[in-house]
Every structure is written in structure tokens, then in C-alpha cells.
Design goal:
458 residues; alpha/beta; eight-stranded mixed β-sheet; four-stranded parallel β-sheet; globular; binds zinc ion
């Protein structure tokens, strides 16, 4: 066989194999893209304790083939090289508590929930490098339809962050979120089990439970009913995240098997009993400081409204109102602000104590309502964790690998390592110097391609 022909056949074989290896394409496009190397970057891979200077990230199709110091990564001959000197790369961010699809200007209502608004919000998340988000309660059919399209690799479903849903969620009859029709409200353990089975049949990814008596104003689930919800969720292979406020309720729920706390404990400092229990049961904690501190941030004079992406992604009316002195002074003089401040101080101290006790923290933000900006809010949560005393490296890990582990997707996501999907956030400055540099985004890559942040389409 002439040498040139042999080479042609070899090349064709390689192309076939590479094409076949291209996993049923995340991006829904499927062609075996060539090798790409991002070089000269500072790499924060999500697992190492220190950044890797002058690193190379080698991609093939939607996957990372190698990532590490330049000296340790050998490049194939036909690689396309993108030198990115001065840039820092972190993994795509994972938010475990947020809301989508129901804001329009300053209006916020479940009646507004639509596919168009869900996709708009997923686009905002991806613009800021949030590649995975969990919508924690009150999702309706259009949200489920977006998820189905995303997971089938249909193009319209990949124009934003990958969405996970807790479906409706669970709150007691006449309890928290009064008048909200998109909730399960069981009054007995049997009803609870049937309703969890209904959620599982809808294909939810997890179960959301509201345990909050509104500081004594509202009825609460009995331990038997919340226990039945958790038990049945586990029987269906679903984890349970809980909205809560109080320390003793957190202990009770952890004893009954809850998998994570979607808010901070805000009534008391966490104690040894809680820390031991939480550690032994392996729960994740989402402090949601940015959610609990939202009114404080506006009352004290927000320092984030000049973020350049806000006018691209959010309504002028919202930015105008949030930036107005009337709004900010209204919050500053609100009678409950002092209480919010006390609660926040407890929440921030509890985040640090849990972290120091070895309880994994994740990012949950409750972003979604007007002025709680999807995408930006997740970066602010990292900032507030750092303000609370957690290192920037650990805040980034909370926002990446810890979230991926909770979702059980850590083999594919959550860090920049060989074999994982290439979800990358490329930054103009190093977030270890100042965590606010995580917002200085040069590019977002999803599944091996740069995202068009104007439209959100990869
Ligand atoms: Zn929420």
C-alpha cells in the first residue's frame, strides 16, 4: 500500500474513532471537533489546593483530555492553540438553590411562568458562568419541557445553564407560601408519600421541603409528615433539600434523613450537637447569604449595580428602582431591618463554623425575584462566603465541585480534570487575589465551546 494512502486511511479511522467517542454530544451537535489547547493560563481546577501557573487545558470535542502545568501536557501535532496569558480559569459554577421563569420587570408571579422566561433566566445564569442551576420549587410544565429538551440534546435546550428541578415542593396546608397553588400540601404521612410518588413520576431531580413557621405565625409539618416525605423521596432515589430557619428544626430534619439545608440557620449559633449530626449524616449546607442579606445590601448602598452585564440581561425598570434612593432608603428605615441584620450575622458565623467543622458548603442563592440578579448573585454569594471568613479557594470549591457532588454529576462536572466535560469560566483577573474578580469574565465555555454571551447560545 502506498504510504500516502495508508495515512489517509489512518486519518479516516482516527476521525471515525474520535467522532464515535464524542459523547452523545452535550452541545447537541455531535461533530468530532479537533484538539484545542488553552495555554498560559492560571488554572484553578477545583480539586488542587493551590492554583497551577502557566497551565494548559487540552480539549477534544466537549471533553477535557488533559489539564495541568505546561511541562506536563504534551500537545498533539494538529492542535489549535489559544494563548490566554494573564487569564485565570475556573470550573463552571453550580447553583443548588434558585428560581426561574416568573419575573417580568418588577412583577414576580407564578402566573407569569413560561418557557420563554425560563430560557431567558437560564441564559442569564450561563452569561455569568453558572453552567448548572437547581430550580428549587414551584416549577410548572414549561420548566420540565426545557429540561427534557436539554437532556435530549435538542438545540433550544442548550441556550442556557443546565436546569434541574424540585418540581412543586412541599409545604403544610395553610403553611408557608400561602395561596401558592403549585405546591404539594399533605396533611398525613400517607398523603405525603402519594404526593412524593407524583413528583417522582413527573421526573423531578430532587424534593424541596419548606419547614418555616414564619416566626410562629404559620402551621408546621408534623415530624411524621416531614419524615414520610423524606423517606419516600429516598425510596424514589431522590434527595431532599429543605428551606428552614431554626436550629432545632434542622437537627430534627437531619435525624430524619434530609440531605441538605437550602438556607442558613438564623435563630441560633449552630452547636456541637448539630455539627456532629450534620457531619455524621453527610449533609450539604447552602448558606444563601446573598439571599438573606439582599435587603441589607440595598439598604447599605449596593456596590454591584454597576456590573456591566446587568443592563444586557435585566429590565431597565428593575435597575432603575433598585438603584433609586427611595427604594434603598425605604429598606434602610424598615422596622424589620435590625432583625434581618441580627439574623444575617448569625447566618454568616454559622457558615464559617460549619465549614470549619468539615461540613461541605454549596452555593445556593435564592436568585430570581426582581433585583436578586440571576448569575451575578452566585458570584456575590462567593464574595459573602469570603467576607464570612472562608478562603477564596474554598468558596470556589463550594460553587463548583461541592455542588456537582451533591447532584451526583462529579464524574463529568465540577472540576477541570481529564475526562470531564469542558465547562470553563475564563477570567481576566485572579479570584484568589480578590474573589470579586470571579465576575470579570472573559469567556464562558460550555461543553468544549465558547458561549456566545450575547445570545447565550453555545
Ligand atoms: Zn428559594
Amino acid at each position: 500500500m502506498p504510504r500516502s494512502l495508508a495515512l489517509t486511511i489512518l486519518a479516516a479511522l482516527v476521525a471515525t474513532v474520535l467522532g464515535a467517542c464524542d459523547p452523545a454530544s452535550e452541545s447537541g451537535q455531535g461533530e468530532g471537533a479537533g484538539w484545542i489547547a488553552l495555554t498560559g493560563v492560571t488554572l484553578i481546577d477545583g480539586v488542587s489546593d493551590a492554583p497551577i501557573p502557566d497551565a494548559v487545558i487540552l480539549l477534544e470535542g466537549d471533553r477535557i483530555m488533559a489539564a495541568g502545568p505546561a511541562a506536563a501536557v504534551s500537545l498533539p501535532a494538529d492542535v489549535e492553540v489559544y494563548p490566554l496569558p494573564g487569564k485565570t480559569v475556573i470550573p463552571g459554577l453550580v447553583n443548588l438553590h434558585a428560581h426561574v421563569g416568573r419575573a417580568e420587570g418588577m412583577a414576580y408571579s407564578l402566573d407569569l411562568y413560561s418557557r420563554e422566561r425560563v430560557e431567558r433566566d437560564l441564559h442569564a445564569y450561563l452569561h455569568y458562568g453558572i453552567t448548572h442551576m437547581v430550580s428549587l420549587g414551584n416549577d410548572q410544565a414549561p420548566g420540565h419541557a426545557v429540561i427534557a429538551d436539554q437532556r435530549a440534546g435538542r438545540r433550544q435546550g442548550v441556550q442556557g445553564a443546565r436546569m434541574y428541578t424540585a418540581g412543586f415542593g412541599f409545604s403544610p396546608p395553610d403553611g408557608w407560601l400561602l395561596d401558592n397553588p403549585f405546591l404539594n400540601r399533605p396533611s398525613t404521612p400517607d398523603e405525603a408519600r402519594t404526593m412524593v410518588q407524583g413528583e417522582a413520576a413527573k421526573g423531578v431531580d430532587l424534593i424541596k421541603l419548606w419547614v418555616d413557621d414564619g416566626r410562629g405565625r404559620l402551621p408546621q409539618f408534623s415530624p411524621e409528615v416531614s419524615g414520610a416525605i423524606i423517606e419516600e423521596a429516598h425510596a424514589q432515589g431522590l434527595q431532599v433539600l429543605v428551606h428552614l430557619y431554626a436550629l432545632e428544626e434542622a437537627k430534627e430534619l437531619i435525624r430524619r434523613g434530609v440531605d441538605g439545608l437550602a438556607h442558613s440557620i438564623r435563630d441560633h449559633p449552630v452547636d456541637e450537637e448539630f455539627l456532629t449530626l450534620a457531619r455524621e449524616r453527610g449533609i450539604i449546607a447552602l448558606p444563601a447569604l446573598v439571599g438573606h442579606g439582599a435587603n441589607l445590601a440595598y439598604a447599605d448602598g449596593p456596590d454591584f449595580l454597576d456590573d456591566p452585564a446587568l443592563p444586557l440581561l435585566f429590565a431597565d425598570s428593575v435597575l432603575e428602582i433598585m438603584g433609586s434612593r427611595e427604594y434603598q432608603e425605604g429598606l434602610a428605615s424598615a422596622p424589620n431591618l435590625a432583625r434581618t441584620r441580627e439574623d444575617y450575622a448569625i447566618a454568616a458565623a454559622n457558615a464559617l463554623r460549619m465549614h470549619e467543622a468539615g461540613i461541605p458548603l454549596g452555593i445556593g442563592t435564592d436568585s430570581g425575584p426582581p433585583g436578586r440578579f440571576q448569575g451575578l448573585w452566585e458570584h456575590r454569594e462567593m464574595e459573602l462566603l469570603v467576607d464570612a471568613g472562608i478562603s477564596p479557594m474554598e468558596a470556589i470549591r463550594a460553587a463548583t465541585l461541592n455542588g456537582a457532588r451533591f447532584l451526583g454529576i462529579q464524574d463529568d462536572f465540577g472540576s477541570i480534570e481529564a475526562g470531564k466535560v469542558a465547562d470553563l469560566v475564563i477570567l481576566d483577573a485572579d479570584p484568589l487575589d480578590d474573589i470579586r474578580n470571579s465576575r470579570r469574565i472573559h469567556q464562558v465555555w460550555m461543553a468544549g465551546r465558547p458561549v456566545d454571551r450575547g445570545t447565550g447560545a453555545p
